[in-house]
DNA sequence: CCATTCGCCTGCGGGC
DNA sequence: TGCCCGCAGGCGAATG
C-alpha cells in the first residue's frame, strides 16, 4: 500500500528515468482511474521535457518545461513499471521517452492523475487542505498540541487525517504509535506534551527507516523486473495480529470504521 | 466546524 | 474444484 515512503522511493526511482527526458508519446488505455484522466493530458505532455520530480504527501509530481506538472496518486495498488517487456491488464497510462517506456499500473484504480499549471500548484484542491510534511520542519510537538486541542477522536484517526499530518496511512500510523508507546484509542486532544514529544520522532523514524529500506532493497530504486515502489518490509505490529511482540505480549487488532488497527496493549498505554 | 458513514474497485484468501 | 464472501485501502461526498 503506497504511503509516503513508497511514493518517495517511487519518485526517486522515476527521477533517473524521466529527468531531462522528452516525452515522445502518451497512451491512455482506459479513460479514467478514480477520476477521468484530464482531456488534454496527451496533448500537453507529448513533446514536453521533464524538468524535475518531487513529492507532496502521497502525491508524486512530474514537472515539465511546458509549465505543467503532472500529479499522480498511487491509491492503494498503483505502481510504475519501467520498461516492461509486455503490457499487463492494468497498465492504464503509458509514457514513452526516446529510450524507455513507463507504465502506470493500478489494479484497483483508487489512484489518480491530474495535470495543473506549475505556477498554481498550490491551488490544486487536494493540496489546499494538507497539513505539514511529517519529515519537514512543520511537524513539531507544539504544532500537534495546537492542531489536536479539543479533539475527541482517537490519535489513530487523527494521524490518518491528511489535514493534520500529510502522508501517513494505516500502516505507518500503527507503526509510529507502537514506536512512541502510545495507545491508538487515546483521545487525540488528551495526549500530554511529553507524549507528543515522543510521537513526533517516532513518526519520523518509522518513515525514514521505510524509505531507507525501500532504497536499499531496490537496485538504484528499480528492481530487475522493472517494478518501482514496492518492496518487502518488516513491521513491528502491522499485519501481525496474535504474533508475539518484543515485550513478550501479543499483537492485538481492532476494527474502527472498517479499518484495522494493530497494536501491543502492553507497550502502548 | 466536527464526527461518522459510505462508495469507489478488484485481487486474494478462507470457508464450504 | 469452484464459487461466494469479506477484506484491504485513500479520499471525497454526504449525512447528522
UniProtKB/TrEMBL annotation:
Residues 2-111 form the Formamidopyrimidine-DNA glycosylase catalytic domain. The active site is at 2 (schiff-base intermediate with dna), 3 (proton donor), 58 (proton donor), 259 (proton donor). Signal peptide: none annotated. Residues 236-269 form the FPG-type domain. Gene3D superfamilies: 1.10.8.50, MutM-like, N-terminal. It comes from the Bacteria. Pfam families: Fapy_DNA_glyco (PF01149), H2TH (PF06831). It catalyses: 2'-deoxyribonucleotide-(2'-deoxyribose 5'-phosphate)-2'-deoxyribonucleotide-DNA = a 3'-end 2'-deoxyribonucleotide-(2,3-dehydro-2,3-deoxyribose 5'-phosphate)-DNA + a 5'-end 5'-phospho-2'-deoxyribonucleoside-DNA + H(+); Hydrolysis of DNA containing ring-opened 7-methylguanine residues, releasing 2,6-diamino-4-hydroxy-5-(N-methyl)formamidopyrimidine. SMART domains: Fapy_DNA_glyco, H2TH. InterPro entries: DNA_glyclase_Znf_dom_DNA_BS, FPG_cat, FPG_Glyclase, FPG_N, H2TH_FPG, Ribosomal_uS13-like_H2TH, Znf_DNA_glyclase/AP_lyase. DNA binds at residues 90, 108, 151. CDD domains: EcFpg-like_N. Binds 1 zinc ion per subunit. Its EC number is 3.2.2.23, 4.2.99.18. Keywords: DNA damage, DNA repair, DNA-binding, Glycosidase, Hydrolase, Lyase, Metal-binding, Multifunctional enzyme, Zinc, Zinc-finger. Its cofactor is Zn(2+). Involved in base excision repair of DNA damaged by oxidation or by mutagenic agents. Acts as DNA glycosylase that recognizes and removes damaged bases. Has a preference for oxidized purines, such as 7,8-dihydro-8-oxoguanine (8-oxoG). Has AP (apurinic/apyrimidinic) lyase activity and introduces nicks in the DNA strand. Cleaves the DNA backbone by beta-delta elimination to generate a single-strand break at the site of the removed base with both 3'- and 5'-phosphates. NCBIfam families: fpg, PRK01103.1. Monomer. Belongs to the FPG family. This is Formamidopyrimidine-DNA glycosylase. The gene is mutM.
